[in-house]
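Morning run. Coffee first, then this:
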Amino acid sequence: MTLYKNKYRIASTRLPNKDYAANGYYFVTICTYKKFCYFGNIFNGHMQLSQVGKIAQKHWQEIPNHFSHVYIDAYIIMPNHVHGIIIIDRPPSISNVETRYIASLQSSSQPTNKSNKFASLKPGSLQAIIHAYKASVTRWCRKNGDDIFCWQSRFYEHIIRNDGSLDKIREYILNNPTKWSEDENNPNTLSLKCKENKLFK
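And here it is:
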């Protein structure tokens, strides 16, 4: 952590010289605020999605519909976080990434950099994709009477550099529900929070 204007802030996890709009495979983790299990719970090693969890899954599956040359690989919606592999694969002839925003992901009345006070989001970048995804889930919750749901402000990513790492990460994602008791995102009071979560029905 670093000190800025007498306040501590978490240093960015982005690599300083990395172009996150460049082609590649990115392993992404996005957590809910305070790791509250809005998305459901694990039963017998299987994820049971809440209503919000189903929306989080639906919008994740629709990411390729809204961003040119962007694809999804393995993913899992967990009780309080999302793991997924995002692939950016632009043809070499394309020098400027063009992004298609559709209403369910990005309202035309809201600029993509509205919540970024320091710099605009580069179109087609990993940051822009995750920002739009998080905004779409939050917007659905607000429109459907849920004013409580909230994401953590940041997300975590890992650049996948070879096939061996890709296979291991795919396996990790798919086996995540069976490893929930060992998951670092599983808070000690998770079961109590899930029982209190009125969104899980």
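Strands lie at 2-4, 7-9, 24-31, 40-43, 46-49, 70-77, 81-88, 156-160. Good start to the day.
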